């Protein structure tokens, strides 16, 4: 049995990963911004819930003070953002940068003493860093920053392993599932595998990064080769 902390696990990929690990018999702690929602999801999947807002990093140490030793730490919290230089929303940009770079780092800082030599960390980025689109000004920048953060933490936390996962279009995730079929069909047509990544694919990839003791400072793309399309 492993002790697992999943930050950002009340929906989507984070929730499914936490559910799978809890079902496996691991001791799982999940976090979410809203305390009631987090507790509800935690009870549904057999985990323990803690309220934590990555965009308010000064409160993260207190929020995680009850967490014990951590074998596996997954930081999956994200925020959808559309921002362009031509119509730049500074508040939205600061929010996302704080959430994903400062917040992620603050979580690791808060749990540093509870990681051990065989612990592993996975950070969530995204493929916008490689293929920006109109409106991805902040998203692309922040996800590129996850690369630097992964490398820096792998050096500073050694021998703790730190890796990053960069999902592409995850077709059955709540966000993409709501898109019109013609949009998804166009994305599938530009993906060499002819299919979009699934939540299960990403969950499996995160699990691989956590369990393989020789994989460190790696950025794993889960996109069916979409970047080649």
Descriptive report:
The protein is an alpha/beta fold and 229 residues long. Helix content is 41%, strand content 18%. It has a seven-stranded parallel β-sheet with strand order 3-2-1-4-5-6-7, with helices on both faces. The radius of gyration is 17 Å and the shape is globular. 41% of the residues are buried. The model has no long low-confidence stretch (mean pLDDT 94).
Low-confidence stretches: none
Please work out how many helical segments DSSP would assign: 8
Radius of gyration over C-alpha positions, nearest whole angstrom: 17 Å
What value does the average pLDDT take?
94
The CA-CA distance between the termini, in Å, is: 41 Å
Order of helices and strands: EHEHEHEHEHEHHHE
- Multimerization status: single chain
**Major sheet strand order:** 3-2-1-4-5-6-7
Most strands sheet: 7 strands, parallel
The computed structural class is alpha/beta
What general form does the structure show?
Answer: globular
How much helical structure, as a percent, in the residues?
40-55%
């Amino acid at each position: 049995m492993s002790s697992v902390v999943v930050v950002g696990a009340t929906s989507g990929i984070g929730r499914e990963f936490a559910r799978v690990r809890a079902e496996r018999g691991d001791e799982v702690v999940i976090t979410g911004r809203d305390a009631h929602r987090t507790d509800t999801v935690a009870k549904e999947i057999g985990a323990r819930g803690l309220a934590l807002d990555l965009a308010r990093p000064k409160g993260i140490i207190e929020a995680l003070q009850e967490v014990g030793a951590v074998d596996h730490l997954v930081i999956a919290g994200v925020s959808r953002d559309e921002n362009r230089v031509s119509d730049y929303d500074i508040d939205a940009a600061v929010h996302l940068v704080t959430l994903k770079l400062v917040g992620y780092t603050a979580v690791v800082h808060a749990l540093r003493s509870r990681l051990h030599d065989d612990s592993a960390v996975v950070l969530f980025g995204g493929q916008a860093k490689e293929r920006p689109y109109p409106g991805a000004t902040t998203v692309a920048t922040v996800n590129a920053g996850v690369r630097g953060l992964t490398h820096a933490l792998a050096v500073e936390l050694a021998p703790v392993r730190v890796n990053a996962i960069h999902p592409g279009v995850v077709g059955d995730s709540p966000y993409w599932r709501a898109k019109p079929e013609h949009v998804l069909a166009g994305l599938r047509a530009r993906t060499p595998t002819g299919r979009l990544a699934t939540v299960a694919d990403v969950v499996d990839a995160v699990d691989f990064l956590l369990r393989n003791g020789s994989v460190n400072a790696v950025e794993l793309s889960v996109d069916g080769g979409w970047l080649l399309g």
